[in-house]
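ok so dumb question maybe but i'm new to this and my supervisor (M.) told me to 'just get the structure for NADPH:quinone reductase' and walked off. so i did the thing. is this what she meant?? sequence i used:
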Amino acid sequence: MTQQIQISQTGGPDVMQLVNQDPGAPGPGEVRLRQHAIGLNYIDVYFRTGLYPQSLPGGLGLEGAGEIEAVGEGVEFLKPGDRVAYAGGPTGAYAQIRVMPAAPLVKIPDDINFETAAAIMLKGLTVQYLLRRTFRVQTGQTILFHAAAGGVGLLACQWANALGVRMIGTVGDAHKSELAKANGCAEVINYNKESFVDRVRELTNGEGVPVVYDSVGKSTFQDSLDCLSPLGMMVSFGNASGAVPEFALSELTRRGSLFITRPRLFDYVAKRQDLESMSQELFAMVQQGKLQPLIGQRYALADAAQAHKDLEARKLTGSAILLP
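this is what came out, is it supposed to look like this??
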């Protein structure tokens, strides 16, 4: 038997229950994975609340790292004893042992530990596709990145700095401001003390930025558009403050023929070769010391509900992990 978090209905953090289950044997194309660390991400809240639908009862979590215990028929690129990590479905990462598809798994280099792997897979691959594929930033550019002290944001600070990109980040308090600066963010705006639109315009001599990366959503969307230079791109990749309200496409024209995209990681890693190449670049950044993920919080698996409460209250800095 193994412990895992399960939900039978959608709702607040208290719908999560710790249950005992037999994970069973892996079927064709599957593995049984003993997890050593589990990633905590805001997308988990979306599944818990029902914003992203799934069959119930069901599990939560899309990121983890551990050791292969058994492989099913047809799994040829993995074997028992392999150290692996993943950032992909189906949900069910909140577990000590789980049976899951082999497809999203990648091997971890020997010099990267399980906790680091669980903290960087989803967030690190997100930063990789945002900065290297959705809008490929160039040395010398100035960009705007919201929630700069979060798990994704701090990795973005470091990655942008390594690429010679001037990153303007937004945060909600002085502590998070210092944290973002310490991780390579060139300019930090406390949105509770000043208008980030006015400050971005000031920092760019009125020109605006070529790209805004926004995971906050409802509360920042319209103002983010006003930070863009003509032909700029709005990258809306999350909605922590709520879904972006409907708006007229003419708003993009009025601001200078702007572009907008709503990307998600799972489309970028749908092909095995892309997953492998993106993971290799991510791991190389860690091995070279260019990315040093901050694990700001560790929770026991049994305390997953409290972890979600802290996540939704924006109390977390850096990455947070669950320990089974």
